[in-house]
Amino acid sequence: MNPRTIWQSQEMENPTMTVHELREKVKSLRAKARSTMIFNLVTALVVTAIFIRVFVLYVHGWYGRISWSLVLAGTFYMLGYLVYESLRLKRTERVDMDAGISSCLRFYRRMLEQKRQHARHMTFAAVPLVAGGLMSFLPALALTIQHPDGNVWVRLFPFSVILVTWFVLFWIMRRRLRRDFHREFATLENLEREFPDR
Amino acid sequence: MGQTERVRGENVRQDDLFQDAITRYGAAMDRLARAYEADPEKRRDLSQEIQLAIWKSLDRFEARCSLRTWVYRVAHNTAANYIVRQRRSNISNLSTLEEIESSPDPTNHQRTAEERIAIDRLLQLIHRLKPMDRQVMLLYLEDLDAESIGEITGISAGNVRVLIHRVKIILARQFHEGKHP
C-alpha cells in the first residue's frame, strides 16, 4: 500500500469555481469589506465626537482636562489608525498578492508580524483611553468615600460597572493575545532555526 | 493600445492561467483543503478561498518560477493563513515529524485493504502536524521532489531531504509497508 497512491487516489470533493463565480465572489467580498470599513469609521467618528462634546461642555478644571485629553488622544489615535488601515489595500487582498511571491516561512512571519503590529496599535490607543477613563473616575470615587451616606455612589455605579468591565475585558484579551503571539512566534523561530532560509 | 484594452488583455491572461492551473493542480488543491480542514462545510469555504487566492495572485505572475511552484505556494500560504485566522490549530497541540517518529509504533493497528480507512489514517496523521511539517508531508505525497518542495516552502533542499526521510519512515510505519514508500 503506497501512501502517495492512496493520497492521490482521492476523488475531488469540491467543484472548481468558474472565473465568473470568482469575479462575483471578489465583488461581494469587496462590498463586505467596504461596509465593515464604513461601520468602523462611523463608530470611531461618533465616539470621538461624543468625547469632544463632553470635553468642551463639561470639563473645566485642569485635572479633568488632562484626563479627558488622554481619552481624546486614545480615540484620535484609534481613528487615525483606522483611516490609515482603510486607505491601504484591504487585508485579504494583500495576503493574496504576497502569497505567490513569498516562501511559506517568510509568508508565515509576515502574516504574524502584521497581526502583532495591528494589536500594538490598538494597545497604544487603549492605554491613554483606559488611563484617562480611570482618572475621570477617581475624583467621583473619592467623593463617594468622603460622603458614604450620600447618593453619589448611585450615580457612579453604572459608569463604574462599565469602566471596570471594559478594563477587565481589555486586560484579559491583551493577555490572551500576548500569549498567542508568544506561542506562534516561538513556533516560527523554532522553524527558522531548524530550517534557515536559503 | 488603450488602457481598457490592456486591462482586458491582462484579465484574459489571468483567466487563462487560472484555467490552466486548475486543470493541472485542481485535484491537488482539493486534497490540500482536506489536509487543512476536517469539517466538510468549512472545507468547501477553504477550497473556494484557495481558488480565489490563486486567481487573484495570477495577476502578478511573471513566470520567475514555474506555475506549479506559484500555485502551491499560494495554496499553502492561504491554508496556513486560514489556520492562523481560525485559531483552531492550537499550535501547541500539534506535533513535529520528530515527535510522531518517536511516538509508540502502532503495530497493533489492523491492516485493512479499504482505501477509505487508509486515507482517514493518513489525514489523521497530517492533521496532527505543525504547519511546516504538514506542508512538506503534503508536497511529498503530491510527488514533488526535494528541490521543488524547498522552492515552495523556503527550506533548503538539504533540510527538505532530511524531512522527507522522516516522512518516509513515519509513513512506512503507519502503513506497514516493510519498506519505505
Structural summary, described in words:
The complex is a heterodimer of chains A (198) and B (181). With 198 residues, chain A is mainly alpha-helical. Chain A has one domain. The longest helix of chain A has 43 residues. Chain A is elongated and about 80 Å long. The relative contact order of chain A is 0.08. The model of chain A has no long low-confidence stretch (mean pLDDT 79). In chain B, helix 6 packs across helix 8 and helix 7 crosses helix 8. With 181 residues, chain B is mostly helical. Chain B is built from eight helices and no strands. Chain B folds into two domains: 84 residues, Rna Polymerase Sigma Factor, Chain: A (Orthogonal Bundle), CATH 1.10.1740; 85 residues, no CATH class. The longest helix of chain B has 34 residues. About 5% of the residues of chain B have low confidence.
